[in-house]
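Hi there, hope your week has been kind to you so far. Would you mind checking whether the tokens look sensible for this chain? I owe you a coffee for this, so here goes:
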Amino acid sequence: MNLDDLVDSIELPEEFDGLPTFVVGGAVRDAVREVAPSDIDLMVAEVSPDEMRDRGFREIDSPNNETFAVFQDSLGREVAIAREEESTGDSHTDFEVKPVGPDIRAKEAVERDLKRRD
């Protein structure tokens, strides 16, 4: 499966209506390598955690939810709001992860999220 095939195969239920949505994580790596992905992780932008709940996304019980919310769509896939890291000190471990605000346009939200990824 290549990247175009991956994107074309993604079904987005009605809770995604109008949300800028992106495929992220290992599925992208696998598609670039032309290997079938084992799971699909999605990222959304221009939305708050409260709006995600209102749209019907189910918040996942996770230790990460202390700093940022992670959700599940009606098809059982993980959906995260774009996140960014903010330095809180001098060490490489002194940072805080937080969701990119809903007022930040999708292009910038994706750029901020990608800066923190490997």
Summary: The radius of gyration is 15 Å. The CA atoms of residues 4 and 31 lie 8 Å apart. The chain has a mean pLDDT of 86. The longest strand covers residues 83-87.
